[in-house]
# Entry
Amino acid sequence: MITLGETARKASRVIAAADTQTKDAALIAIAGELIAKQSDILAANQIDVQEAIQNGLTDALIDRLTLSSETIANMADGLIQISKLPDPIGEISNLQPRPSGIKVGKMRVPIGVVGIIYESRPNVTADAAGLCLKSGNAVILRGGSESINSNQAIGKCLSAGLKASGLPQGIVQVIETTDRNVVGQLITMKEYIDVIIPRGGKGLIERITQEAQVPVIKHLDGVCHVYVDKDADLEKALEIADNAKTQRYGTCNTMETLLVHESVAEKFLPRIGDILFEKGVEIRGDKISQRLMPNAIAATDADWYEEYLGPILAVRVVDNLEQAIEHIRTYGSQHTDSIVTENESNAMRFIREVDSSSVMINTSTRFADGFEYGLGAEIGISTNKLHARGPVGLEGLTNLKWVVFGNGEIRT
# Structure
């Protein structure tokens, strides 16, 4: 692990100084390697999948683990797309003259060395490597033991693409062991790692958050809310609530709690209840919700905290906007929350007072995504208060430093 850290630190200085053309050429070369070595990757993935089945992994985990010709093509295409994104490194902003004669601004720079710990999805190996490379960072990747063969096969493509572009292979390193102690070492290597990004289940992220001695970019839960205000367009609200819950169940930006103003509850809840019931969604509601939605069962206090990641929805009727905001403050996870309203004052108050990484007006929480935000791709979603917040793309993998331009000025 120390050797990996030393190699990454040395390589980080090379990639930080690399020009855009070199980085883009590397991304394109890696994409070409993925396509050329497709059969090797699929063969390695088949070994992982068979072992996962034998070890009794869930169908959902096996689905995330399984690669196909299409997913490999998508991985390659993703790298090509990253190569076409503007390079944030070296960009100088807010350059202002000062009375002394100097000019002061900020330059965007790489973070340095990024450690990424993830589970199941082998495509993360290529996606994360591409984003780190473009943003001028070196990266150490530690995938789950269930995807070790797939990750190693993809890692060979990453190394070959870097070598073909004249860049050190230490810019992207895929850890080759499944030893669980490696994670404990990686998250405490302060002298080599500048930030850790975990992607996986709540248990993994909780462990890393508690034990890391390196800054962590993470989110634990996606307890996302949609609040239907008294001044909502109910037709609009039906579509938004339906989409936020049922477009995909197992994502962190899926609605888990629906809040409805008491003045529109009688009109809205029976209709959304019928839509969701037809799609097999279990409703857990407060007393008013149960009365208006005959298929609802009683919610417990624990339901308001729950990230179901499945076809279950908590529903509560609130007295007013203030109560909706207070509910989100108490039970939310600062991930993504949305208000449906035609009242501009209420909308603006909601986005000012709800302290989440993404706050929305009249749209589905499912849009909380790097691609949908125009970032091209994302390395994860952060609910941190400092540095990156929300979907983390290229800019989130950079930092700012002050730069000062002078012409012989001295301070008196």
